[in-house]
Fold these 2 entries.
Entry 1:
Amino acid sequence: MERHFETKIEELKRILVLMGAYVEKALEEAAESLLKEDRNRFQIVHEIEDKINSEQLHIDNFCMELLAKQGPVAKDLRFIVAVIKINTDLERMGDQCVNIAYNGLDYLQHGYKIDCPEINEMVADVKAMVKQSLDAFVKNDEKLAQKVMLMDDSVDKNKNAVFRRLEEWMMKNPQHIRPALNLILIARNLERLGDHATNIAEDVIFASSGRDIRHGRESRT
Amino acid sequence: MVTETPSIKADIKELKFFYGAKQILNSVSMPIYKDRLTALIGPSGCGKTTLLRCFNRMHDLYADTSYKGLIQLQPGEINILDPKVDPIEIRMRISMVFQKPNPFPKSIFENTVYGLKVRGVKKRSVLMDRAEQALKDAALWDEVKDRLDSSAQGLSGGQQQRLCIARALAIEPEILLLDEPTSALDPISTGAIEELVMQLKNKVTIIMVTHNMHQAARVSDYTAFMYMGDLVEFGETTQLFTCPRDTRTENYITGRFG
């Protein structure tokens, strides 16, 4: 006999995956608008963020109800705790996508292009991290979660490279500080997105096995 | 969260119990920590009440029962199950409270001091002092101090159960056994008993059988999960309810079987 609780857990998973899909879409739109210089796509990011925000409230209420009514323990409890945390991460990821859109629009409006290939690499890495962290959640796949965490190093490295590159660039081009600042902020936004995806991966491992690997408490591999 | 491992009050070592030829407990080994509450959980027929009753040799009251293994009481390593050990003496050191409140048809005072009188304590002032302390420890004193000579039968179910706890505490037991102490009580009385045992566990070692897993999670420091006469898992309650080691424990506490 399937437990009523089981159907609720499945429903919660479905809603979180939907929210994750919104975040992926927001990131896609924000990144494409910047890379393809399509200003119209920025507005779409705002619209998606509204949906992400309302899903965040929905998931919080759903989790509160399950905690209050079902008194979950063991893996059910770990799953709900992980969902509450992932929910917060996803909402913040939505905010970061809006920030990318905002900084991207400002950058394009300035009309001055700076060659910065590391940004493109960061976009590719972060998109993969977001997708794979959500896949790891859906499949309860610890190995995939570990892979996501390892990718974060590459994102951090590229962010530092962007900072260095643009610092030099600003010294050489002090009359065009603003577009460089936009790209620095975008690199920072992407790096934060990577951190949130890493948090999700850590929560997947916690939900799956009960291991808390945050803050270097345990080896990530 | 249990921060340090406390000393051991009793050590169960390869305990087997039989009704005739039928084995009910299959070589159970676990520690009972001093001044901590250990909950025994598991589906009906798993052996948890049988294990509890071994502690004060309740099974001796029935024919054709036998034990193998040890329950060593510390300090002194006295084996509770040794036939040479007097069960009456054991019951003076290890008292028990049952599922249904069972006060004697006597006054509140007489109920409280019953065990002491059996022991031969006669001095009224001593009995009075011990009764007051036991009733205070059982969180009943304020409700009954003005009517100690009234019949215990006139108390509510929750009060009667607390009186039974006071009666068990009056003999100053080393271990208090609770066999589903709240299963016959309403939520308010259940809450009062839970608060009470959480206070008591600082001064007496408690072993509690409960069918209510959330109760075990709320009040106990250690939990033992039993299934079909086996001890499947024993550990700190926080660990067992957040990250159980055995799949059978996981399935039972999450309601997937049992």
Entry 2:
Amino acid sequence: MNKVHRSQLAGMNEHFRRYSLDFFLDSMVKLGIENIELWAASPHLYIEDVTYSEVGRIRKEIERRQLQLICVTPEQCIYPVNIAAREPNVRERSIHYFLKSIEVTSELGANMLQMVPGKGYFDESVEEAWKRSRESLETIAKKAESLDITVVLEALELKESNLITNVSELKRMLNEVGSSHLQAVIDTCPMAAAGETFADCFRELGKDLRHIHFVDSSHLAPGDGTLPLSQYLEEISRHNYNGYLTLEIVSSRYISDPVKPLENALLCLGVSV
Amino acid sequence: MFGGERLKNVNLAGMNLHYLNYSLEYFLDSMVKYEMPNIELWGGFPHLYSEDISLSDAARIRKEIESRCLNLVCYTPEQLMYVNNIAAKEPEIQKRSMDYYLKNIEITAELGTNLMLMTSGWGYYHEPIVEAWSRSREALAILAHKAEKSGVTLLLEPLQPFESNLITNVQTLKRMLQEINMDSLKGMMDIVAMAVAGDTVKDYFEALGAGLLHIHVIDGTPSGHLAVGDGNLPIDQYLKEIDDFQYHGYLSMELAASNYYPEPDKAFLRSLENIRKMLY
């Protein structure tokens, strides 16, 4: 497999959900992982409840370990938020969740925030939901511009959303919103589910392909699943990609011992532990 | 609850968790269409998220259920996906969680059922569990008192080891029930949690006796929340054992695998057809 340089990789705390944030940060230092993408969710950092003094404390905890925060990803797939919701109160609450997330991202000293488009009810037409999603993204992108944060938008698998499930729909949404501060993140799982490769994604998105979630099938650690990760790395290296690869591993099998799958992933990617 | 002696199709209940990409009305209509008379209502987004709704919204949902002649057998507010941990060390998370469940007990009564599912919460896995256990116990006792006043019985359900380090088997379930010792807090059995823990149907009935008020029948490998037939658990054998203990409560099919989200009816029907063949 093509080797990955340590400085390209980012660790993520989602599968550390039964451990404290400090435990996660210490684990990154022990593993020699230099960059982190912060999954913002309880008990680590819940956007709705967090105060600015707590955000300041978390920033200090990250910086004193000399870790670099490359992206903030508020929980938005299992939490009750949906920027495309039909119910006005839910949609408004969801937009506020992301407006505050942008401020938190700025306070943490990061410049990238990850989002998904939300979803409509599957027993309704998608057109109205698409429009609601776009209008929400326009509002959020304006706020992002004002604080110079880039929002990266991610496609989902059909089981998660009926709005953006492939790269052409992702590009269509970027075009319709038309903001310099809205770009794309490609996650290997929905990409594979859509039958696409990185060659397709770079061709469609070009420079708007700002960020990558690099995981094996079903969000397993690299090496534990069935995706052609070696081929993906070759495609990525051919396109002069300068961004990061985040190991967004999520499976319930890693919850009890969250460090081990990262050790295995680093070995699999040719990064010495 | 039932006149008959053996477990029958009328003991089955459908559940809405894997319908979360569809509207609540779609789920209710599906139950009518597939002749499923009983439902266990999952209180989760976007069907019934307690933080967003008022008690009058709950009354409206009750009307939707009753106008379809469906029987609500249990209400199950979402316990794991949201910011929610009654055993949390952080006071703000604890408070938020208690507010959540206190409101959900009121919603249970408003919906017109007397059973609400409850779980233990969890402590950090890198810390000793003693303190988290006592926080959970204190929280459950407060909730059981509230339930008592509202005419509701809480059904305590064990979780799997990736979900909690507190109540994960029949032994810890029985211990918590004894430590709290209130009539408004009873036990229930989830087939998958039972299988994952290595417990048996016999273990549950011996530990809980007539206090075993509710059962989730789902398949797994052994983990998962799968349609009956999609996993490899001996559901047929479990049902015979449950029947031998003269259980007359409900068996809810709590399907929750995300693969079922795009076409929830298909998984429900498959589970229903498979389990009907095993009943009398």
